[in-house]
Amino acid sequence: MIVAENITFKHILRGVSISIPDHGVTGLVGPNGSGKTTLLRCLFGALKISGGKVEINGKDLNSYRPRELAGEIAVVAQDSGEPPQISVAEIVRLGNIASGGQNDEIIYDSLARLGMEDRATSYLNQLSGGERQRVMIARGFAQAPRHLLFDEPTNHLDIRYQLEVLHEISKYPRSVTVVLHDLNFALQYCDYVYLLAEGEIVAAGEPKEVFQPEILEPVYDVRVTMRDGILRFERKK
Prior knowledge:
One of its GO terms (molecular function) is ATP binding. Keywords: ATP-binding, Nucleotide-binding. The protein is an alpha/beta fold. Helix content is 35%, strand content 28%. It has a single domain (2-235), classed as Rossmann fold (3-Layer(aba) Sandwich). The strands form 3 sheets. The chain has a 6-stranded mixed sheet with strand order 6-7-8-3-9-10, sandwiched between helices. Strands 2-1-4-5 form a 4-stranded antiparallel sheet. The protein is globular, with a radius of gyration of 18 Å. It starts with a strand and ends with a strand.
């Protein structure tokens, strides 16, 4: 379990506490600038928190060695930062190596889950933005950590691959934490959500409990209705 207690980061996060279990899909949702990505980055140490603490399995995040942490957490960020002239298979292999393995079957199975097995020998600079995103997700699967963290995994994807990626993420047998802008995707694929606004948690629970008009309307400044299990939004007149 990942537990963040009363964490702060500059002026962006203000006393945020969350618990991420070892199974299921946890969503971080909220308007632009609410602190979703900052919170995610604090959970794996990419940002040094100003106050509070983050623990993984009861152990302080800062006490983990890199190889040990790689077995606990893998991150799929919006900007991979990978060199362009590296093959798709080698990128995914890096994930498997990070957690102490080097298994070709896992590498190609991870690519196949994202429909990218035919591009294994292609270079990163030969791929579209959506294809690169799917490769980075495959690398996360190949790392096979206890916790997979995603920052907007549907970015750059057309609707078909948005649905396929979220379907594969939801089937991950351990824990997934995902930053999402689309509340209907969160409603469909998340088991639990934290709603952020202005650096604070304003609601937490199952999506159907959190995504109520009286909760969402003041956060997003829109009118919200639920029809046939789908959230609908209208501009306030």
